[in-house]
Specification:
Blueprint (H helix, E strand, L loop, with lengths): L12 E2 L11 E6 L4 E5 L5 E3 L2 E2 L1 H11 L1 H10 L1 H14 L2 H14 L6 E5 L5 H8 L3 E5 L4 H9 L3 E2 L13 E7 L8 H11 E12 L4 H6 L12 E2 L2 H11 L2 E8 L9 H13 L5 E7 L4 H8 L2
Length: 302
């Protein structure tokens, strides 16, 4: 039932204030056997507390269990790619892609640039490169080596903040099933905001704790795993994005019941309803970095 996860660790951990509002007052949320999630009493964000520190997490992904994770990614690569492409389509990526390429052609400019943070083996990046995008990836697991050597992609193997990308570097940034793994999700979003071009687009995919499956299964929910440090709802993630400065364009979700939980006919109906009613297990939020005021005024003159 649960998403693949590394074994429960016993390394260094630390208590953290709420990543959204800074509060130190929490209430129990999910007791998962060996670890737990709490909810902020002020804003409702669910997070692990205590949680492994950054060095512990980096070690787990890069060394201790990195090769196991790579094997898992390679085994499920085709299915993951299809899900990512469907999610992006739902969120309006295809329309955005046409607009960006049309503008580049009209202005005789370079093709649009895209950064995939947590790009795993680089399957999505490779497909985007084939369509003409200028692509860059960030991945701290051994998937980075695979993406660079096997797919000849530009993939950086250190966390986003350590790459020191220049301001206003990318037209689009993708972050699929990443933000829930980070100790400092707000700092991560601030960095994506900094390196996005004005009017640039961000697509964030993550489990939705306000969805049907979470409410049905509670602590047995497949996304309530040791590797997830935060479990966002669309409300808490949208609020964090807006706090950083983003404008939230849309939120779409999917996934009514996991495979094997119910007969296929029941699952099919549950999946249809979850997507139609936007009450699914996983969500993708499309957000924009607003045009700078000075640029907005310049554009208004033409």
């Amino acid at each position: 039932m649960k998403t693949w996860s590394m074994p429960i660790g016993a390394g260094k951990s630390e208590m953290r204030p709420c990543a959204l509002c800074g509060s130190l007052i929490f209430k129990p949320a999910l007791e998962c056997g060996g670890f737990s999630f709490v909810k902020c009493k002020n804003c409702g964000l669910a997070q692990r507390n205590p949680q492994p520190d950054k060095n512990e997490i980096l070690t787990r992904y890069s060394d201790t269990y990195g090769n196991d994770y790579l094997s898992y990614e390679l085994e499920n690569e085709a299915a993951f790619l299809k899900l990512q492409q469907l999610a992006l389509k739902d969120a309006g990526f295809s329309r955005l892609e046409k607009t960006l390429f049309a503008a580049a052609k009209k202005l005789y400019a370079e093709s649009p640039s895209i950064l995939d943070i947590g790009c795993a083996t680089g399957a999505l990046l490779a497909s985007l490169r084939d369509k003409g995008w200028r692509v860059t990836g960030v991945e701290i697991s051994p998937g980075a080596v695979y993406a660079k050597n096997e797919r000849k992609l530009d993939v950086r193997d250190v966390p986003l903040e350590e790459n020191n990308f220049p301001e206003n570097s990318f037209d689009v940034i993708l972050a699929s099933h990443l933000i829930e793994h980070l100790n400092e999700p707000k700092i991560f979003l601030e960095e994506t905001y900094r390196i996005l071009k004005n009017n640039g687009s961000l697509f964030v995919t993550t489990p939705d704790i306000s969805g049907f499956q979470s409410l049905l299964f509670g602590s047995r929910w497949r996304s309530a795993i040791f590797d997830h440090l935060y479990l966002f709802s669309r409300r808490t993630l949208s609020k964090m994005l807006k706090t950083v400065g983003f404008k939230v364009v849309s939120c779409h979700s999917w996934g009514g019941l996991a495979a094997g939980v119910a007969p296929k006919t029941v699952k099919k109906v549950a999946d249809f309803l979850a997507k139609s009613l936007n009450f699914g297990d996983v969500m993708i939020i499309y957000a924009k970095k607003p045009l700078a005021e000075a640029q907005r005024r310049r554009d208004a003159k033409f």
